[in-house]
């Protein structure tokens, strides 16, 4: 499985993660907008075992996701850049990695799917072939 490197903006934290499939899932949800300061984030659900923090420490805060279950957001305490989330609704062995922070992931091409399309900004075009009002199966 290919391994990718990432780092936060200030450089105090670095990580590696194993990526089963080189693809982005674009998310338009309200939490992503607040956390990124932009209109969407790029993500993928990956095995938690494949993530390794190789420098620094992460802090965590917890919020309620749409499912009503807790989501833990892990972030650099200095610059707040967030490498991943843990949505407990996905199970304890999976995390949501921010694929846009991984070196070389800009070469993966357009997103494979878009989620929370209901929250897409009116001026934002759909770029993926598949899109879901919230999440697949909801
Ligand atoms: Zn940082
Ligand atoms: Zn989101």
- Are any ligands bound, and if so which? zinc ion
Strand-pairing-aware structural class: mainly beta
Q: What is the CATH topology classification name?
A: Metal Binding Protein, Guanine Nucleotide Exchange Factor, Chain A
Output the helix-strand order.
EEEHEEEEEEEE
Sheet with the most strands: spatial strand order: 6-7-8-9-4-3-10-11
Largest sheet: 8 strands, mixed
Total number of helical segments?
1
Portion in beta strands = 35-45%
Mean pLDDT: 96
Gross geometry? globular
Cα-based radius of gyration, to the nearest Å: 14 Å
Q: Given this structure, which CATH class is correct?
A: Mainly Beta
Helix content percent band: under 10%
The N- and C-terminal alpha carbons lie at a distance of 29 Å
User: How many structurally independent domains?
Assistant: 1
Count of DSSP E strands?
Answer: 11
Looking at this protein, list some descriptive labels.
138 residues, Metal Binding Protein, Guanine Nucleotide Exchange Factor, Chain A, binds zinc ion
What does this structure look like?
By secondary structure, the chain is mostly beta strands. The chain has a single domain (3-131), classed as Metal Binding Protein, Guanine Nucleotide Exchange Factor, Chain A, CATH 2.170.150. Helix content is 5%, strand content 38%. It binds zinc ion (2 copies).
């Amino acid at each position: 499985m290919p391994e990718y490197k990432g780092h936060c903006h200030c450089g105090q934290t670095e990580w590696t993660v194993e990526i089963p499939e080189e693809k982005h899932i674009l998310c338009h949800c309200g939490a992503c907008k607040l956390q990124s300061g932009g209109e969407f984030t790029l993500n993928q659900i990956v095995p938690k075992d494949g993530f390794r923090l190789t420098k620094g420490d992460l802090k965590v805060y917890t919020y309620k996701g749409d499912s009503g279950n807790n989501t833990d957001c892990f972030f650099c305490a200095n610059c707040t850049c967030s490498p991943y989330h843990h949505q407990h609704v996905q199970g304890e062995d999976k995390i949501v990695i921010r694929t846009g922070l991984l070196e070389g992931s800009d070469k993966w091409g357009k997103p494979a799917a878009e989620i929370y399309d209901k929250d897409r900004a009116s001026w934002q075009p759909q770029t993926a072939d598949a899109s879901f009002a919230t999440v697949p199966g909801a």
